[in-house]
């Protein structure tokens, strides 16, 4: 693993544990067992770390959504795929996803604008899938914003649950969560 990747991984863990604002470059250097000045050989500062972590996860969601949208499946099947996408990302990027969910508002400038656009586009695409499911009579005629809010509220918190669970419990989650979340909105 490159030194920069080690820095990002350690920073994600620290940001998850303490929050972005509470972590200093000295804290990160101490956790890496290196001098703070040496960190700057690999990164420009905390803002670069935050942007890298958050945008990497946001792009994973965008790529996943693009794949789901290209699929010729029903809206219900697409919604299932998106739930599984959230689980997959929570498993692969647990700490960075925590940072995205709790510290995105600390982004500045272009990275902030890019994240907001990616988030809005993702939510709009998810909403469009739900709306197409209503039109196809796959989902109940409910307020789409309420449906989306409830789905995303649950999906955005999976990273809190996953580290505490066994492989079997995660497998059950992959099998059961789509059923649990979509049963209430299915026609």
| Helical content band | over 70%
CATH superfamily: Tetracycline Repressor, domain 2
Query: Structural class, from secondary structure content?
Result: mainly alpha
Radius of gyration: 18 Å
Description:
Residues 1-61 form the HTH tetR-type domain. One of its GO terms (molecular function) is DNA binding. Keywords: DNA-binding. Pfam families: TetR_C_24, TetR_N. Residues 24-43 bind DNA. This protein is mainly α. It has a single domain (46-183), classed as Tetracycline Repressor, domain 2 (Orthogonal Bundle). It has ten helices and no strands. It has helices at residues 3-18, 25-32, 36-39, 46-70, 75-92, 94-103, 109-135, 144-155, 158-161, 167-183. Helix 1 crosses helix 2 (25-32). 27% of the residues are buried.
Sum up the structure in keywords.
187 residues; 0% strand; elongated; HTH_TetR; HTH-type_Tx_Regulator; TetR family transcriptional regulator; KstR2_TetR_C; DNA-binding
How would you summarize the topology of this molecule?
Elements: H1 3-18, H2 25-32, H3 36-39, H4 46-70, H5 75-92, H6 94-103, H7 109-135, H8 144-155, H9 158-161, H10 167-183
Helix pairs in contact: 1-2, 1-4, 1-6, 4-5, 4-6, 4-7, 5-7, 5-10, 7-8
Domain HTH tetR-type: 1-61
GO molecular function: DNA binding
Pfam families: TetR_C_24 (PF17932), TetR_N (PF00440)
Describe the structure concisely.
GO terms for molecular function: DNA binding. With 187 residues, the protein is mainly α.
């Amino acid at each position: 693993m490159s030194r920069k990747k080690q820095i990002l991984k350690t920073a994600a863990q620290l940001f998850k544990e303490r929050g972005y604002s509470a972590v200093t470059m000295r804290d990160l250097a101490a956790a890496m067992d290196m001098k703070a000045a040496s960190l700057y050989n690999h990164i420009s500062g905390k803002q670069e770390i935050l942007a890298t972590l958050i945008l990497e996860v946001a792009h994973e969601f965008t790529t996943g959504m693009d794949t789901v949208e290209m699929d010729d499946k029903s809206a219900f099947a697409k919604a299932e795929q998106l739930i599984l996408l959230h689980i997959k990302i929570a498993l692969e990027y647990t700490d960075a996803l925590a940072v995205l969910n709790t510290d995105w508002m600390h982004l500045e400038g272009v990275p902030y604008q890019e994240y907001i656009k990616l988030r809005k586009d993702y939510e709009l695409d998810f909403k469009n899938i739900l709306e197409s499911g209503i039109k196809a009579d796959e989902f109940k005629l409910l307020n789409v914003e309420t449906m989306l809010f409830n789905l995303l509220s649950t999906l955005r918190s999976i990273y809190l649950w996953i580290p505490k669970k066994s492989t079997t419990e995660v497998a059950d989650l992959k099998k059961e969560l789509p059923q649990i979340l979509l049963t209430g909105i299915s026609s």
